[in-house]
Queue: 3 jobs
Job 1
Amino acid sequence: MLLILMPFKYIPIKIMIIMDEVQIISTYKTILTITHQMLKAAQGNNWEKLFALEQECKKLTHALITNPPQRILSADTQKRKIEIIHQILACDAKIRDITEPWMAHLQKLLTPYSQTTSAKWSKYH
């Protein structure tokens, strides 16, 4: 978003960048690369890095989602896009296989604490 400074006002202006086929595929490839890095971070229990990479991925995904519709992709480009998406989803499944049990474990650890804390605070209300 670009802000143009006017006397006494800020006027937000959205600038749309229309991606061509090469840029679209490049963005999907970058998401795939980041997803592989996310998997390595999850395998190494590097949660800070995983979170940071997830934020990068969200930005790129947002760019694809907000990209104005354009002409239909060529058959080869569409095929390549689908192949990359399948690879991204496979990586994402592996990441979830690592993070979901960890999150469930963390939830179990925190639940007694939150119940104890709630019980303590309820005495005062």
Job 2
Amino acid sequence: MGKNFRSSALFQKALRRKQRNAARPRHIKKIIILGDSVAYGYGTKGGIARHLEDSFPDSEVLNFGINGLTSDGLVERLRAAHWQAELAQADLVLLNIGGNDLLRQYRNGGASELIRQFASLKKNTAAICWTFTDIFKRATIEC
């Protein structure tokens, strides 16, 4: 008993931001889902897209998830301006990518190759984030 508990300044700042943002009304007109089969909703009855449609009935939900997509493939599509017009109008973008990168590498070379794949995945994630900053000029991007 009597232990002192002090949360970090970072945690306190995040908590204040969360409380401040909770008071703001959210007007989400367009939600876009990008990524692999998990984003697509493979093996489910509508996946996250259906959940979002039910949760945000006044919003348009576009699912650009692709079965088997890797982070390399997503980077190529973003650089080729696939979906750029839609992305530029989005109020919320959900991204799920990387599972296929890791699974393929593990199948090809086991655990040691899987670990090496993380460097490539990190590089691709950075490229995706930079592409997002070009598309969403006024948005806050957290990667």
Job 3
Amino acid sequence: MLGGLAIILACQLLGEVLVRLTGVPVPGPVVGMVLFFCWLLWHRPRQESSTVRAAERLVHYLPIMFLPSTVGFIVYGPRIASQWVPAIVGSVVSWLATFLLVGWLAMLLRPGRRGLGRGASGGAGGAGGAGEVAA
């Protein structure tokens, strides 16, 4: 499990270093998470591997990560209450955008999909479109 934790922390460190070197306006841990995801795609660890066990252990303690935001709501409660309309609108719009994007990606990446760009009427041997070229 220590080897898996070392890989996760190395990806986060590498992400932080890349952000600081390049000046990209993205948090280092986000870049590290993308690097870890790419490593997982490349390596494909088994369920019993140390990397998977370390990740499962971290997910087990994930609720602890919400404590700082809860304290922030308590400390800045009056300010949040005075600006509740933009906060609610921003939350609903971002939730809806995420919901629609995840649904679209799930449909796009679902198993058994014949190919990109083929909708209900554009399957193989369909009527064709402007972009289709005859052989």
